[in-house]
What we know:
- The protein is mainly beta.
- A three-stranded mixed sheet has the order 1-3-2, with no helix packed on it.
- The model has no long low-confidence stretch (mean pLDDT about 90).
- The chain is about 10% helix and about 15% strand.
- The chain has a domain at about 60-109.
Amino acid sequence: xxxxxxxxxxxxxxxxxxxxxxxxxxxxxxxxxxxxxxxxxxxxxxxxxxxxxxxxxxxxxxxxxxxxxxxxxxxxxxxxxxxxxxxxxxxxxxxxxxxxxxxxxxxxx
Length: 109
């Protein structure tokens, strides 16, 4: 290890890759395991689904957009009430509903 502040020459990409590969074990073979035993393993070949499920773009991040300052001081026992000014769905133009002070926008993805 070098000293703090010591300048070291940068490695060329090819040399750095060679060093990494020199210290990386090669493939250890192919083994078929059940799904529960697959955690922490890597695939030996590409897996391609025969169809998209669900058959549409989907994301589980529904919620509300709001101005963070509006929630300052809110607690479980003393929540802040905001008017829901509208709803944004996946694919809506970003300027469909604006998020303004004192209001919230429902986000449905």
